[in-house]
Amino acid sequence: MGPLQKYRDLVAAGSIAHDPAQVHVVEKLQALSERLQTPGHGMAKRVARALLRPERGRVGAETRMQGIYLYGAAGRGKSMLMDLFFDTAPVTAKRRVHFHAFMQEIHSGISSQREQGATDPVRHVADAVADTASLLCFDEMQITDITDGMLVGQLLKRLFERGVVVVATSNRHPDELYDGGWNRQAFLPFIEVIKSHMQMLELRHPVDYRRVLAQAEHAYHVPANNKASAAMDALWLRLLDGEPETALTISAHGRSLSLSRSAGRMLRADFKELCVQALGSAEYLALAKALDFLILENVPVLSPARYNEASRFITLIDALYEARVKLIMTADAEPDALYVEGEGSFEFGRTASRLEEMRSTGWWQSS
């Protein structure tokens, strides 16, 4: 059974929903799986020969690729699809590992080789990996510093030379790996190694916001009690669809805002996180630009003593409104009762009006 049939079985059993974007990816994984069925793992050997002696025979661009690099926003099912491929791959010597854990192992191996006086420790470690696995599946590939970037590049280059087939998932296209990092230009040649040996596949799965609204029952929940919180928990789990939460960092004018409950262009945050700390319009504009969807919880009734929080809330809603972000909110009162007295309460009428529009069906049906 290949990954495509297993995917179809899961859909038929109701375990997952049919998704055209996922089908496109799993079909590519199926094609790779079928090439791996060549006796003696001939696909890796054939590709290696073609790369070393291109004048002997011509192979298609997809066949020359020694693996697949699957990227896209969190919550789209990348890990699930890779697992379907790995579980059904007709290869005995195979390994599936989280990228972070793998890199820790590689660092340890290189340290050991240096202690033994190896002149090329990276090559030794890469060869040791290739000797035990002709198929490697990496989950959540990312580069956080230039040392790892250079090491990954050298490691993959050697693995590809050895004919190892690599399948990796990532939230970022290779061109965006270590984007903005120090001395990134030194990593660029290794990005080309990845792109020249792996087929790039983006898992596109635009969120059906009408469906999200139906699952949430409505976009504005009053009051912000345990029942509302439980409803947001259930909705958030459905949106994550098995993918882990990640941190979202927003930078503006030399300041940064870090939020822990993010997935792709979706965010779940508390009023205290966004409106109690001293943030300005630049941060809110950057946040709105980074999001398609926001769950904002526990918005309180605001008093004159909380003018600064009310002012920030107004600025936040304005930024979300202009960026057409879909907002689901839990609050202690209806929009027109959130801030009824104090400085700026009259101007808050526009914010209340925008909140009413943002909870409407028309807003959720718009792009």
Automatic annotation (TrEMBL):
Signal peptide location: none
Gene3D superfamilies to which the protein is assigned, alphabetical: P-loop containing nucleotide triphosphate hydrolases
Pfam families: AFG1_ATPase
Alphabetical UniProt keywords: ATP-binding, Cell cycle, Cell division, Nucleotide-binding
BP GO annotations: cell division
Gene name per UniProt: zapE
Alphabetical list of InterPro entries matching this protein: ATPase_AFG1-like, P-loop_NTPase
Name assigned to this protein: Cell division protein ZapE
